[in-house]
Amino acid sequence: MSLMVLHNTQIPVGLKVKEAEHKNNTERSLICLTHKVTSLMKSYCRIVYIRIHFICTQYTIPRQQHMFASDLLFQEVVRSEIEVMNQLNHANLIQLYAAYESRYDITLIMEYVEGGELFDRIIDENYKLTELDTVLFIRQITEGLEYMHKMYILHLDLKPENILCVSRETNKIKIIDFGLARRYKPREKLRVNFGTPEFLAPEVINYEFVSFPTDMWSLGVITYMLLSGLSPFLGDDDNETLNNILACQWTFEGAEFSDISDEAKDFIQRLLVKSKSWRMSASQSLKHPWLSNPSLHYRLHQKVSDISLPLAIPSLSPSSSFSFSLFLLFLLICICVNVNLFVWPQKNKCHSRHAPPPES
């Protein structure tokens, strides 16, 4: 396991790095771990953790007399990520504290979170993800997107793997990985041809102009996955997945959605719209009843409480309910009979100070 001491790196990257207040960390050793990123970065990137406070991503850049085009493109990707992160400061976005460039490395010092990927909670059979949990997750993601879009920045690679939980005990999250993020300029028509197939919007597949609604499509896919554990457009291969997206073929007919609220389904329906101009924006999504209605949230909380009760009575059909009512009535009659036979005579005897008069 290779070690690296941060304070030996002295050459700052040629971009303005946002200053950040943080605690001094006396333990400066970095633990280097391998981390998969986009196909362009796989051969260059390793993720480095600073214990307790920070996380450090180190990109190794080959320095040769004649650099390949992919190497130069990789440098642009890393510098673009730094430039984007310097403009972002929000509670639901991972924070960049500093960036350094040496002869062979570009090192990013970022906020440390330890709760693991949101994707891990989706696939964990021992973790029961409720609809109310999903509301909390999606609201935070939407707030992060709203902030980014107000800063005219598109994420363009939103997926559960790029959302980290702050800790395993809470539902607080951070959006990460801005390597594919782009600044949106309305006068410049932006097209992209990258992303994860399951989460691509139709306009990306068709190589059409992208904008803020492109991120909102991905949010709709994530919402669907959190509520059901299923991917709405996943096919046997990438081609089938892309065709499903272009056909906008998805449904709520599975058993996984039998107990999901109508508000949640409406939320998804307003995001997974093929025409991007008809999708909800981040601001509109935050005002949707599913994310903003306290009464609905209370009902969802009560539903979770009822399920967690060990003696909870299951829902009954009308015929079963009538039979159960007759049983309760019969039980009540039996109780009354027992009271009249045993309790009432004793009660009269206890409250009587004198013996009853003799019968004539």
UniProtKB/TrEMBL annotation:
The transmembrane segments are 322-344
SUPFAM superfamilies with a match to the protein in the record: Protein kinase-like (PK-like) (SSF56112)
Per its UniProt record, what Pfam families does this chain match?
A: Pkinase
Single GO cellular component annotation? Answer: nucleus
Q: Name one GO molecular function term.
A: ATP binding
Q: Which intervals hold domain Protein kinase?
A: 1-291
Q: Which domain of life is it from?
A: Eukaryota
Q: Name one GO biological process term.
A: positive regulation of apoptotic process
Which keywords appear in this protein's UniProt record, sorted alphabetically? ATP-binding, Kinase, Membrane, Nucleotide-binding, Serine/threonine-protein kinase, Transferase, Transmembrane, Transmembrane helix
Mind telling me which Gene3D superfamilies this protein's record contains?
Answer: Phosphorylase Kinase, domain 1 (3.30.200.20), Transferase(Phosphotransferase) domain 1 (1.10.510.10)
Query: Which InterPro entries has this protein been placed in?
Result: Kinase-like_dom_sf, Prot_kinase_dom, Ser/Thr_kinase_AS
- Name the PANTHER family on file: MYOSIN LIGHT CHAIN KINASE, SMOOTH MUSCLE, SERINE/THREONINE-PROTEIN KINASE 17
In the record, the note on similarity to other proteins reads: Belongs to the protein kinase superfamily. CAMK Ser/Thr protein kinase family.
Protein's recorded name: Protein kinase domain-containing protein
